[in-house]
Write a structure and sequence with these properties.
Elements (H helix, E strand, L loop, with lengths): L1 H12 L3 H14 L4 H13 L3 H43 L3 H14 L4 H13 L3 H15 L3 H6 L9
Helix pairs in contact: 1-2, 1-3, 2-3, 3-4, 4-5, 4-6, 5-6, 6-7
Length: 163
């Protein structure tokens, strides 16, 4: 699977997306939990403008990461929260606000300081009219991590605390 994934990466870099797809499919056929190849299939869909299709592949990659986490933690850990936040962002981009919120909250449940999930959820809350919730989320994030221009761009974090 690793060799086929590498072949897919090289092939995609050369602009041969059908060839890359075939290579990733081979990797996945050999190992249905080849989360890197699953993720790259999503990236291919994304590059080609198919966000809905990308989401399916990213969700499959995330699920595979969860299945192999115990045995591949050093490889999975750096990608896990980031992939969950990416899924939330893609859902938000195509108008699936509830799915996006679910993904952001899922990520924040185990990685409470994940920047993309925090900002994504704050944006959804603000857009949905929960400015106080967005402000509270951003303030907590800033208190724990330092200044966040992304949060400040969504809500005024300098105003009085929400009640």
């Amino acid at each position: 699977p690793t060799a086929y994934r590498a072949l897919g990466l090289v092939t995609a870099a050369q602009g041969d997306f059908p060839g890359a797809r075939r290579a990733y499919e081979q990797a996945i056929a050999l190992d249905p939990d080849a989360w890197g190849a699953l993720f790259n299939m999503g990236a291919l869909q994304d590059i080609q403008g198919d966000t809905e299709g990308a989401i399916v592949w990213f969700e499959r990659a995330y699920a595979a990461m969860g299945r192999v986490y115990d045995t591949q933690a050093p490889r999975v850990r750096p990608w896990y929260a980031e992939t969950g936040a990416l899924i939330g962002r893609r859902h938000a981009e195509v108008g699936h606000a509830e799915a996006a919120e679910t993904w952001y909250r899922r990520v924040l449940s185990y990685a409470p300081l994940e920047p993309a999930a925090t900002v994504g959820l704050a944006r959804l809350l603000a857009e949905g009219g929960d400015t106080a919730g967005a402000r509270r989320l951003c303030r907590e994030f800033i208190e724990r991590t330092g200044p966040s221009p992304d949060c400040a761009a969504i809500v005024d974090v300098s105003g009085p605390p929400p009640r």
